[in-house]
């Protein structure tokens, strides 16, 4: 754990200087202050390792010498000299610091064991900053041209995984293109694309195992693609036909698959997040080598359920990885109208959740971060928050025209300059894993596959009428038996009122 | 929303301060209640005389004991709950199976849905039914549709949401409401309300083991006041089956939960005037047992429904409409509803707001003499 410590000197009654300890880890330190704040801070970064004590006391180790005194100052004694670990947690104790020149100053460290841990008092009235001047940086592996950023930390990506992620992204893009067109032609009732965000779902899925449970929103079908959901299965769900797993009950793109550990999507935002914690708690209780991964967008973080989930996950020590696709837009609402915080990543620490911001258009960065997050979530039994910075290149859905609220230039910029597909392609080509011929073969294969799937799904019959009534409860209750009987009589009398492709 | 501490303090004293407001209660076995009855030695038979919260506690203990994949959680559940329903369970089964959650109802229900979706029995406690509304979305849009929307690939049937409901003497707006009708408009969940300790234990165990999500409202006024002989062992009572708890021939009265004790008093008083009342406990509000009510109304020709919740849009309206559909020609008087008023639940006006015994008695007479 990296913890920075700053010391600040303030004049105390009697003319002595008091050093205050300020550190950058709020769970460790009683007080947190940005180095950019206006107080005069001596930025004395300690290279020592500072450990977090369970009882929230003060545990230090390093080349810094701590002198200890009782509150009456009559019995000072050295409790630490170099290199060893020391602890002082009692209320009313004071620490004397000996600086490099051997001059003693003393630190008022009077604190109180409030419920939840010890908190130290200060005579200064300092408000924590609402935001820092410097925004949290974004972890990336590849730059826009597919070159490695120098000295980056990353997980090894095999040729097999690299190519599967790439072809998955292209599959998703192709599927989106044709399904979107089918909707425009009136063949599908609704559709929603993942354009520009293909890396988040494909690369994160690649970093997981098939045992990890997925609770997603609606812009992550790439996970299902990765896990083997076929284009035909996507098409069947979207056309609500008899072969579709959802029995035609939900709008298009509300996929789900028991076999693939992907819980069925629902339209309300953020509702899947507290559920993800419950699923993770189940995995935890059964000591499974698996975690839950929950996906959502930037707009979703304004919902109460998001905050409920973050807090529950932290309190329950639940092995869940939260992945936020911060694509800049919630339908027409830009992030500037959504929150004042520095995005999503900064919300994690407030709940006690380790968090990272990742370049969401960099498949390798997503892959590495999710792989690491998964390991931490399972090994340490704790939640992790990942904010993937990306951009929604497509409209929100087929019911939306995003040029009404954002410029075509902006969309084009992200589409051309930050395409996650182009970036990964450059990398795999440079690796010698991929060429022009592979690319054209992939495209022609996918085009045929998707077109065929749409045609087949479109021709298939709708589910039988009985499925209107089934699965409301495990068994049919009497009111539904009665209603089904009445409805069938009505259909018999007025068949012209009802669709002919629904078998009775 | 009140803090937990505030809620606890307030309600920790309710029964101490208001034991004089005894609501006579009886079930078909006509065991009357009083706080003192708790102190009496066990009666003969298979069970002891216990109060309603103890019966709930027994059911929860059995649920945890009989299924290692069952969990109980909610605000203040760890130390036994503000109404003591989970007393001793964390000690017996461990803090991983019986635990406090953060103070957040949507989180509690959402968490429960996820836990249940993995095949566990998730027993969630909402501290007061008045505070269930932050979880409304999770119940209505998620729990209720979980099976249907997935084509039966997933379900959260292991979820049971317990919540104390109803008047309690001085609960005011936010510790008195009866929100059952909101949930009766939601296909996919079941709504169950017990009237007595024995019923509570059996119906709660059924709800917990039911393969569909259940909202289980507990009459908090009866937690300590209702005392009844309850079998000690494991037993269940069927859902969606109403029970005729008092037979009669002149008028049918339908109710549920704590209101049944008031209705029974009205029946007893009506009897003195020569009116024979049949009293039905609906027990499960959705899907409800129309047939039992219909059969009774076909016999009596008259129907009165009573509930604490406001009359407009209350579940009484649904029963009335359904029975008129089925028994129109048999009815000898309009269906009567004696319910709460269409106001927020009022603190000092509670005695005026409530569907009291004499309001019911008047309605019985009016209906019979129509």
Q: What does the model show?
A:
The complex is a heterodimer of chains A (504) and B (370). By secondary structure, chain A is of the alpha+beta class. Chain A has three domains: 5-120, no CATH class; 159-459, Rossmann fold; 473-497. Helices cover 32% and strands 16% of the residues of chain A. Chain A contains twelve helices and 19 strands. Chain A has helices at 159-184, 198-206, 221-227, 231-239, 272-285, 304-315, 347-350, 363-379, 408-417, 420-430, 436-459, 478-493, and strands at residues 5-11, 17-23, 41-42, 51-52, 58-61, 65-69, 77-78, 85-88, 94-98, 104-107, 111-114, 117-120, 213-215, 292-297, 320-326, 329-330, 333-334, 354-359, 384-389. In chain A, helix 2 (198-206) packs across helix 8 (363-379). The longest helix of chain A is centred in the middle third of the chain and has 26 residues, at 159-184. Chain A is globular. Chain A starts with a strand and ends in an 11-residue tail after the last helix. Chain B has 370 residues and is of the alpha/beta class. Chain B folds into two domains: 4-231, Rossmann fold (3-Layer(aba) Sandwich); 243-368, Rossmann fold (3-Layer(aba) Sandwich), CATH 3.40.50. Chain B has helices at 4-12, 14-17, 52-66, 89-93, 105-117, 136-143, 146-149, 180-183, 197-209, 222-225, 259-272, 290-300, 315-327, 350-353, 357-368; strands at 47-51, 70-74, 98-100, 121-125, 159-165, 190-192, 214-219, 227-231, 243-246, 251-255, 277-281, 284-286, 303-310, 336-340. In chain B, the strands form three sheets. A seven-stranded mixed beta sheet of chain B has the order 3-2-4-5-7-6-12, with helices on both faces. A five-stranded mixed beta sheet of chain B has the order 9-11-10-13-14, with helices on both faces. Chain B has a two-stranded antiparallel sheet with strand order 1-8. Chain B starts with a helix and ends with a helix.
């Amino acid at each position: 754990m990296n913890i920075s410590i700053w010391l600040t000197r303030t004049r105390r009654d009697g003319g002595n200087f008091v050093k205050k300890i300020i550190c950058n880890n709020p769970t460790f330190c009683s007080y947190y202050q940005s180095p950019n704040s206006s107080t005069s801070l001596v930025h004395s970064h300690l290279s020592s390792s500072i450990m977090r004590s369970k009882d929230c006391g003060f545990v230090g180790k390093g080349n810094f010498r701590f002198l200890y005194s009782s509150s009456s100052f009559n019995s000072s004694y050295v409790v630490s000299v170099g290199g060893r670990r020391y602890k002082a947690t009692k209320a009313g104790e004071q620490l004397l610091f000996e600086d490099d020149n051997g001059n003693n100053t003393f630190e008022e460290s009077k604190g109180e064991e409030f419920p939840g841990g010890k908190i130290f008092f200060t005579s200064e009235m300092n408000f924590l900053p609402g935001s820092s001047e410097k925004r949290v940086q974004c972890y990336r592996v590849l730059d826009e041209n597919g070159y490695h950023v120098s000295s980056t930390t990353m997980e090894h990506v095999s040729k097999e995984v690299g190519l599967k992620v790439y072809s998955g992204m292209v599959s998703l893009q192709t599927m989106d293109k044709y399904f979107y067109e089918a909707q425009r032609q009136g063949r599908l009732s609704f559709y929603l694309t993942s354009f520009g965000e293909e890396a988040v779902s494909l690369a994160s899925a690649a970093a997981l195992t098939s045992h990890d449970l997925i609770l997603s929103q609606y812009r992550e079908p790439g996970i299902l693609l990765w896990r083997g959901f076929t284009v035909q299965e996507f098409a069947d769900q979207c056309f609500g036909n008899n072969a579709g797993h959802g029995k035609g009950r939900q709008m298009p793109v509300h996929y789900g698959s028991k076999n693939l550990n992907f819980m069925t999507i629902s339209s309300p935002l953020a509702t899947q997040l507290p559920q993800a914690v419950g699923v993770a708690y189940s995995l935890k209780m059964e000591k499974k080598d698996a975690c839950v991964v929950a996906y959502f967008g930037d707009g979703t973080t304004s919902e109460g359920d998001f905050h409920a989930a973050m807090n529950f996950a932290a309190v329950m020590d639940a092995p869940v990885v939260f992945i936020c696709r911060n694509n800049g837009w919630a339908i027409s609402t830009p992030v500037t109208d959504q929150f004042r915080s520095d995005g999503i990543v900064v919300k994690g620490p407030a709940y006690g959740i380790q968090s990272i911001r990742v370049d969401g258009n960099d498949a390798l960065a997503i892959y590495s971060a999710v792989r690491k997050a998964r390991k931490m979530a399972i090994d340490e039994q704790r939640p992790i928050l990942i904010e993937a910075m990306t951009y929604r290149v497509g409209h929100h859905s087929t019911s939306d025209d995003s040029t009404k609220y954002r410029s075509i230039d902006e969309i084009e910029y992200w589409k051309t300059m930050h395409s996650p597909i182009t970036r990964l392609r450059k990398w795999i080509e440079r690796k010698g894993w991929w060429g022009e011929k592979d690319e054209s073969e992939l495209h022609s294969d996918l085009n045929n596959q998707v077109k065929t799937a749409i045609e087949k799904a479109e021709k298939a019959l709708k589910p039988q009428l009985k499925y209107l009534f089934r699965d409301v409860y495990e068994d049919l209750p009497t009111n539904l038996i009665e209603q089904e009987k009445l409805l069938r009589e009505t259909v018999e009398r007025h068949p012209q009122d009802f669709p002919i492709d629904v078998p009775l | 929303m009140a803090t937990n501490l505030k809620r606890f303090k307030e309600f920790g004293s309710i029964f101490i301060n208001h034991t004089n407001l005894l609501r006579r209660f009886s079930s078909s076995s006509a065991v009357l209640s009083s706080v003192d009855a708790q102190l009496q030695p066990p009666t003969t038979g298979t069970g002891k005389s216990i109060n309603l919260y103890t019966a709930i506690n027994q059911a929860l203990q059995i649920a945890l004991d009989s299924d290692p994949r069952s969990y109980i959680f909610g605000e203040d559940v760890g130390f036994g709950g503000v109404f003591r329903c989970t007393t001793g369970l964390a000690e017996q089964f461990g803090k991983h199976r019986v635990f406090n959650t953060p103070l957040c109802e949507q989180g509690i229900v959402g968490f429960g849905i996820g836990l249940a979706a993995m095949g566990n029995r998730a027993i969630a406690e909402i501290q007061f039914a008045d505070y269930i509304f932050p979880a409304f979305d999770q119940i209505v849009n998620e729990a209720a549709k979980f099976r249907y929307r997935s084509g039966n690939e997933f379900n959260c049937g292991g979820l049971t949401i317990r919540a104390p409901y109803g008047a309690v003497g001085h609960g005011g707006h936010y510790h008195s409401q009866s929100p059952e009708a909101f949930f009766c408009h939601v296909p996919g969940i079941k709504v169950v309300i017990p009237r007595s300790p024995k019923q509570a234990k059996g119906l709660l165990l059924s709800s917990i083991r039911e393969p569909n999500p259940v909202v289980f409202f507990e009459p908090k006024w009866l937690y300590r006041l209702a005392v009844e002989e309850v079998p000690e062992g494991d037993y269940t009572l069927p859902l969606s089956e109403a029970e005729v708890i008092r037979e009669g021939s002149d008028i049918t009265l339908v109710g549920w939960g704590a209101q049944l004790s008031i209705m029974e008093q009205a029946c007893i008083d009506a009897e003195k005037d020569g009116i024979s009342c049949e009293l039905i406990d609906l027990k499960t509000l959705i899907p409800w047992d129309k047939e039992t009510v219909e059969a009774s109304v076909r016999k009596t020709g008259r129907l009165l429904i009573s509930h604490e919740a406001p009359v407009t849009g209350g579940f009484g309206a649904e029963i009335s409409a359904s029975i008129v559909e089925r028994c129109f020609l048999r009815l000898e008087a309009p269906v009567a509803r004696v319910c709460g008023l269409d106001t927020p639940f009022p603190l000092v006006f509670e005695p005026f707001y409530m569907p009291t015994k004499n309001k019911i008695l008047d309605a019985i007479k009016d209906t019979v003499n129509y």
